[in-house]
Amino acid sequence: MTARGGRPDRGAALFDLDGTLVDTNYLHTLAWWQALRQHGHLVPMARIHRAIGMGSDRLLDAVLGSQRRRDEDASLSDAHSTLYAVWYDVLPPFEAAADLLRAVAARGWRIVLASSAAEEEVAAIRRRLDAEDVITAATSGGDVDTTKPAPDLVESALKSVGAEPADAVFVGDTNWDVEAAGRAGVPCVGLLTGGRTRRELEEAGAVAVYEDARTLLRHLDSSPLSRPPA
Asked: What is the model's pTM?
């Protein structure tokens, strides 16, 4: 494959969405809190936020415990999706998120949106990002059986563009992102916009940590995304 402009295009830059390119982690926290409350579970928002970034199955294990009633899973997940969908038209991209994608693509990377969110949610985020001209591929929840921190999502994103782990860099905002990337053999750049600390991301294995998308863009030439593999 060749990049736009005819340059060699081997590298794959994998980007998480929620908390990385769009400021939605706390919206998800609120939607899960409301969904749980509807089903009689009063869970502190702080506990929910700590689990954001996992798939819904693992999130429910984290906030309700592994002995929870699993027959509620589908209705809880559906309630969360319905509550969260009211935000689709106003999901807020982080400042310079689209500019970051375009700058990374201009360096010869293929841009892959790596998400386990529902397909309609990924579509809503893509509309808000307005960077379709540089997005090569995207994953959604239907592409994986096991969610983060399992490596399946990262492996699916690599497969979507025929890339090897050595060809890729993952950008995420939670320790779950870093762990999933690490298990797939892909280095992960962490952003602090998801509510995790620099120490948490570094201890999980992040190769570099930046304040936000704008800061990563500003330091792109000295970052792991400065150029794709030769």
From this structure: 0.93
